[in-house]
Write a structure and sequence with these properties.
Blueprint (H helix, E strand, L loop, with lengths): L23 H14 L7 E7 L5 E7 L2 E3 L2 E7 L3 H8 L2 E8 L4 E11 L2 H10 L2 H9 L9 H14 L11 E15 L7 E7 L5 E6 L2
Antiparallel strand pairs: 1-2, 1-5, 3-4, 4-7, 5-6, 6-7, 7-8, 8-9
Length: 212
């Protein structure tokens, strides 16, 4: 196998300015609906990129849990690597890789912590096992074995066997307020279509085509 020989053409669709909504959130919702309709695996999965104090970027995949004009919402352990990095630097980048549709969306923005009420409401909506898992995992920290994790999960399951499971003090969420959003559609001969929305001081969005 030669890595340099692995390639394909992108021929599914094209993207022109007149096809885009003036509002990138509306445009994103339309593309997300199409990704769901296409039965893509994990259509709400997004790569979240943060940067540590030394300038080292890190990435991980999380699920988009809410979207409105305010921004893109996800939840996480607030003692995790991503949360610790966001505490030092709120700049963040999201990437939605919808490969089967030959599309991707990149969101550049600022992460703002959600209110305790919003976090609690979402936490209580999660399956019970997911709530218990949140209590079980000291996210991003070393652990000696999978068995240790499973034993702790069993302990937490027994501890919270009755009644509602409370919100952990170390669990929260973020709303990513975007200032730039790029929509990418694959094109033949690597002549892809790329459009960048940029938020202006007036709150309106400008749109420009980028070279592929």
């Amino acid at each position: 196998m030669k890595l340099e020989d692995i390639r394909r053409e992108y021929l599914k669709d094209g993207l022109d300015r007149e096809m885009l909504n003036d509002n990138p959130i509306v445009q994103f919702e339309a593309w997300l609906e199409q990704a769901v309709a296409a039965d893509l695996p994990d259509p709400t999965a997004m790569v979240v990129a943060t940067v540590d104090p030394d300038g080292q970027p890190s990435q991980r995949i999380v699920l988009l849990k809410h979207l409105d004009e305010g921004g893109f919402v996800f939840f996480t352990n607030t003692e995790s690597r991503k949360a610790q990095e966001l505490a030092q630097n709120q700049k963040i980048c999201l990437h939605f890789p919808w490969h089967p549709l030959e599309r991707q969306v990149i969101v550049y923005g600022t992460a703002k912590p959600l209110s305790n009420l919003a976090v609690t409401q979402y936490f209580l909506s999660r399956p019970k096992e997911s709530q218990i898992a949140a209590w079980t995992s000291a996210q991003s920290r070393p652990i000696s074995s999978k068995q240790v994790l499973l034993e702790k999960f069993a302990q937490m399951k027994n501890k919270f066997s009755q009644g509602e499971i409370p919100l952990p003090s170390f669990w929260g969420g973020y709303c990513i307020e975007p200032h730039q959003i790029e929509f990418w559609q694959g094109g033949a001969h690597r002549l892809h279509d790329r459009f960048m929305y940029k938020k202006q001081d007036t709150g309106q969005w400008s749109i420009e085509r980028l070279n592929p």
